[in-house]
Amino acid sequence: MTIKVRFAPSPTGMMHIGNARTALITWLFTRSQNGHFLLRIDDTDAERSKVEYEKAIEESLTWMGMNWDEKANQKDRWDLYNTRIEELKEKGWLYPCYETPEELSLKRKTQLSRGKPPIYDRAALELSEDQIAKYEAEGRTPHWRFKLAHKPIIWNDLIRGEVKFEGADLSDPVVIRENGQPLYHLCSVIDDIEFGITHIVRGEDHVSNTATHIQMFEALGGSGATFAHLPLISDNEGAKLSKRLGSMSIINIRDEEGLEPMAVNSLLARLGTSDAIEPVKDIKTLIESFDFSKFSRGTPKFDTEELLRLNSKIIHETAYSEIKPRLDEVGLNDLDEDFWDIVRANISKFSEIKSWWYVAKGPVSPVIEDAEFIDQAAKLLPSEPWSKDTWSEWTSAVKQETGRKGKQLFMPLRQALTGMDHGPELADLLLLIGPDKAKERLNTNKKAA
Description:
With 449 residues, this protein is mainly alpha-helical. It is 47% helix and 10% strand. The chain folds into 4 domains: 4-79 and 182-230, Rossmann fold; 92-151 and 163-176, Glutamyl-tRNA Synthetase, domain 3 (Alpha-Beta Complex), CATH 3.90.800.10; 320-361; 371-448, Arc Repressor Mutant, subunit A (Orthogonal Bundle), CATH 1.10.10. The chain contains 20 helices and 10 strands. Helix 10 (261-270) packs across helix 12 and helix 18 crosses helix 19 (426-442). It is elongated.
């Protein structure tokens, strides 16, 4: 049997960390099984669905290294949905309900006040033709519910193990709005059957939905699917993701945060598993190591600091040959391998390479607090040509001449040469700056005078 799996986002906003994790795990599973990956855009909500969000979803998936074998839009499949819905109505699986939202709310409150679960009482099934005619004369149009069979619903979840619900303990779900628009539930199940989906991966907040969907599969004559419900991620304190983290879109992570796609993948793929979270540079490694048996039911914590650490490590391990095309894209065509090897250990994001290029090539604003000391140091600069020993020769001479040592010696020189108080080893950086720029920066105060 060919494994066929779908990722089904709604284009009502940018794809954020939570959805990206579901997409990645779904994709890794599919590729690990040599399966078929369907990107299904759930765009039945015409008012909220936007083409720009759909494009952003595709762009986000591509940036993370994912591809798809097939794509479908639900907005193009209304004829199929209507046909299957009429079949369900004829077979008695769907029934019309005339209660208003206010009336349903009052029912729920009454049930709760009596200590009962807020389950729909199926009062609509007892309506007489006269009562229905009266409601319709008032201008009411019905919403439609799926009539659940009151029997056990059991499935073996790839993460949660055996899951069991009693049909009698669940409310018959609303599947069609008053305006006639089918809701997520029916359209999703119809598509899962039509596309031959064998496995469904989604968040644990859908567990009760799955119970109702299993009966919809049966009603529609489908063979069902295997489910895997992922625990929802929390923030580092164990609380629900804040807006800052939970809504952090992949486009934002790429463009505003400037992070590497494999840093995101390395964290999201291993979060909540028995595998160590470590920087992985090749997505094939994540495919080869993927197994649902490694996932626990505990709530995994999403830590932005961990994401940044992974990003730094990936940058530090990236060879010049891999980074060269990106350097060309940002106009750093002249940045050679020696420069990259010297600087990369001091950057945590690719975008920071520009800062060090400017530090080396200028212009910079030297920080000179002790002009007399810097003047002495400038006079002691070794003659050309310079080598890796030039820095130690120079600082030894300055130390002997001024009596300074340690931070008192090195920090003023770094600040005068780079305008910064941190960075790569100056033994290496000094060679990138070169004699002419070094002399110019050390003599800045003289020029001003």
